[in-house]
Amino acid sequence: MLDAIETKKIKENTAAGVQVCDVTIGGTETVVIAGPCSVENRDQIMSTAASVKESGARILRGGAYKPRTSPRSFQGLGEKGLKLLKDAGKSNALPIVSEVMSEDDVELVADYVDMIQIGARNMQNFALLKKIGQTRKPVLLKRGPAATIKEWLSAADYIRDGGNDQIVLCERGIRGFDPYLRYTIDLGAVAWIKANTDFPVIVDPSHATGIRELVSPVAKAGIAVGADGVIVEVHPKPADALSDAEQQLNFEEFNGMIAEIESPLPSIA
Ligand code: PEP
Ligand code: MN
Q1: Distance 163 CA to ligand 2 centre (A)
Q2: Which residue(s) pair with 23 in the sheet?
Q3: Residue 44's closest CA among 4, 75, 76, 6?
Q4: Is residue 207 in contact with ligand 1, taking CB distance under 6 Å?
Q5: Is residue 249 a contact partner of residue 231, using CB atoms and an 8 Å limit?
């Protein structure tokens, strides 16, 4: 656990909000980032972008370089996927975020996206973190599935030491013992980050649960403990998705989720 002096240093050294084009993460707004797990084709990303925008999403997500457990699973469209994501973002006035997995691709990905994602599996890829630190793009730093809070913050330090302090943390679940959910979301960590640092922090209920029906309730829970936003996977036909089919919401479900998270908490009386 970080002691009080270390914690204070984190607060002093970190910007209060991170600006992604016209969107501030860590300001007054709860920012919703949405889009497919993977960019698959033009129709898929275009229709998803238009629909999530209409529902209220502020940033478009979509994977082009996919960290798949098996090398025989769909690996993403690479640069072609980035081009499609950029077109979809532009057509719908949405900033875009996408993952980079290799330090060799950082400049290429940074050329396309408005925010660079470091995936959970690469949270301690120190060469990648250092390279990202040299860019001036906002960064979405996901928590490693087995990382302590201190290790997560140290990963952020690698990026900051390069001169890039535009970092948003993302709690996406850690490895627990229960196989019913994909991961175990650590909402205490979200509250801890808010209480002890100035980093904006968002939650990813899609990867954390792996179960479509749990995305909306867990998104609400994340916001209740102070998350500055959520990142949610949305696909026109989740059952046909080339990755993470079980956890993606269709357009109607995503629209319903937005209504849910906007609705006030039930009164206690
Ligand atoms: C993703 O957001 O596309 C992703 C692969 O998530 P994570 O790194 O959290 O598993
Ligand atoms: Mn996914």
Answers
A1: 29
A2: 20
A3: 76
A4: yes
A5: no
Beta bridge partners of 38: 63
Strands 229-233 and 115-118, how do they pair?
A: unpaired
pTM recorded for the entire structure: 0.94
Per residue in 128-151, pLDDT tens? Answer: 999 999 999 999 999 999 999 999
Residues 121/129, Cβ–Cβ less than 8 Å: no
**Ligand 1 center to 207 CA (angstroms):** 7
The whole-angstrom separation of Cα 36 and Cα 125 is 24
Give the pLDDT confidence of 100-134 residue by residue, as tens digits. Answer: 999 999 999 999 999 999 999 999 999 999 999 99
Nearest ligand 1 atom to the CA of 66 is 5
Report the 10 Å Cβ neighbour count for 228. 26
Contact between 246 and 42 (Cβ < 8 Å): no
> Per the structure block, which two tokens stand in for 143?
């928590």
Name the 3-class secondary structure at 102: coil
